[in-house]
């Protein structure tokens, strides 16, 4: 007799006359019907299922957490709008950020804990089986589905427990408020953002200087393929709280290419460069991140935040990414000493495109 090399404990398919679900264990055929269905374990009642006082306490905890979330949202907005900031005192900035963060944390954490506690202690607690149907059910099945939704509403107590429901709705309405306040603060509330972004430090005759040293740049300092981070002359002399705002609008990237590689749509724009040297705003037109990467071989400028790409050969037009318009160009020329200077300010507002614009 040939030896069974697979061993007596190996499982192999049964012969064709046996059910496909049967298996051969050694020489014995075992049917799945031989194993009894263990069923669900005995249901354990929670304290809230047997004690009405505990159930009421759990309900109070849930809506109290929802209202605590509202307190956190309001506190974050209050800290952002009314906490005194001293531009020369970094501790006040740190405390302001701390209070805003604590408020937002309290808001989100309270909602999360309330939702978990609601599901564990307040909603109905029983096991059920939900049969799935691979195709559209009959009208009777669809009507039963509507009944199931109504049963779920009854079990959760969403309609019946008005304090919990109203607390949830109010907390969900309140928790986005800190974000709205923070985003609204991106621009001054007493000025036109479009006009504010259109005017920068750049003006006719102002020298281009290196960032951050402030040293003026000569055209001869740039070789083909080189790129400089540029700020206006005099920026470093501004007070600290004004310097950052001015730089956020006036930062420029300066690149030298071969003049024949630049494609212009008009003779006027061709005069905005000098011997292949071009200057463009460093502020991405998507959401204002700094465009900090230059690909020397492709002549592309890249924004690292959301991967927008701009083509230096073709007036910095967008060739990839979410940015909606080209980078604004700074017209440049040279002064009598050979230093690069601005011929005038930017040709259009700098920065993000989500503000209303007239051009």
What can you see in these coordinates?
There is one protein chain. This protein has 359 residues and is of the alpha+beta class. The protein folds into 2 domains: 54-125 and 141-184; 193-342, Rieske [2Fe-2S] iron-sulphur domain (Rieske Iron-sulfur Protein, 3-layer Sandwich). It contains 9 helices and 13 strands. It has helices spanning 47-50, 52-82, 90-122, 139-156, 162-174, 177-184, 193-198, 240-250, 267-270, and strands at 11-13, 23-25, 28-30, 208-210, 227-232, 252-256, 277-281, 293-295, 300-302, 309-311, 317-320, 332-334, 340-342. A hairpin with a 2-residue loop joins strand 2 (23-25) and strand 3 (28-30). Helix 2 (52-82) packs antiparallel against helix 3, helix 2 runs parallel beside helix 5 and helix 2 packs parallel to helix 6. The chain starts with 10 loop residues before the first strand and ends in a 17-residue tail after the last strand.
Summary keywords:
Rieske Iron-sulfur Protein, respiratory chain, 359 residues, elongated, oxidoreductase, 2 domains, 2Fe-2S, alpha+beta, transmembrane helix, electron transport, disordered N terminus
Sequence-ordered SSE layout with sheet pairings:
Layout: E1 11-13, E2 23-25, E3 28-30, H1 47-50, H2 52-82, H3 90-122, H4 139-156, H5 162-174, H6 177-184, H7 193-198, E4 208-210, E5 227-232, H8 240-250, E6 252-256, H9 267-270, E7 277-281, E8 293-295, E9 300-302, E10 309-311, E11 317-320, E12 332-334, E13 340-342
Antiparallel strand pairs: 1-2, 2-3, 4-5, 5-6, 6-7, 8-9, 9-10, 10-11, 12-13
Helix pairs in contact: 2-3, 2-5, 2-6
């Amino acid at each position: 007799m040939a030896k069974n090399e697979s061993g007596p404990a190996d499982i192999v398919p049964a012969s064709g006359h046996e059910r496909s679900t049967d298996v051969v264990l050694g020489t014995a055929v075992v049917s799945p019907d031989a194993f009894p269905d263990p069923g669900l374990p005995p249901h354990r009642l929670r304290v809230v299922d047997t004690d009405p006082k505990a159930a009421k306490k759990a309900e109070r905890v849930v809506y109290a957490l929802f209202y605590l979330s509202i307190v956190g949202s309001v506190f974050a907005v209050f800290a952002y709008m009314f906490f005194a900031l001293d531009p020369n005192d970094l501790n006040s900035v740190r405390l302001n950020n701390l209070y805003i963060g604590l408020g937002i944390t309290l808001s989100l954490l309270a909602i999360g804990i309330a939702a978990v506690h609601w599901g564990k202690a307040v909603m109905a607690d029983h096991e059920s089986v939900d049969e799935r149907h691979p195709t559209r059910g009959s009208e009777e099945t669809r009507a039963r589905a509507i009944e199931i939704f109504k049963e779920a509403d009854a079990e959760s107590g969403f309609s019946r427990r008005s304090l919990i429901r109203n607390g949830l709705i109010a907390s969900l309405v309140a928790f986005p408020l800190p974000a709205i306040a923070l985003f609204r603060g991106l621009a001054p509330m007493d000025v036109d953002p479009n006009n504010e972004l259109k005017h920068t430090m750049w003006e006719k005759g102002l020298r281009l200087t290196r960032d951050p040293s402030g040293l003026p740049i000569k055209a001869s300092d740039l070789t083909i393929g080189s790129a400089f981070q540029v700020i206006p002359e005099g920026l470093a002399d501004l007070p600290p709280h004004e310097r950052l705002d001015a730089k956020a609008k006036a930062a420029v990237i300066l690149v030298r290419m071969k003049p024949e590689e630049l494609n212009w749509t008009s003779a006027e724009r061709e005069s905005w460069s000098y011997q292949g040297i071009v200057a463009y705003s460093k502020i991405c037109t998507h959401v204002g991140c700094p465009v900090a990467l230059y690909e020397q071989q492709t002549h592309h400028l890249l924004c690292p935040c959301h991967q927008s790409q701009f083509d230096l050969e073709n007036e910095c037009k967008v060739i990839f990414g979410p940015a909606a318009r080209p980078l604004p160009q700074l017209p440049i020329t040279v002064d009598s000493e050979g230093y690069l200077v601005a011929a005038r300010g930017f040709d259009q507002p700098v920065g993000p495109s989500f503000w209303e614009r007239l051009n």
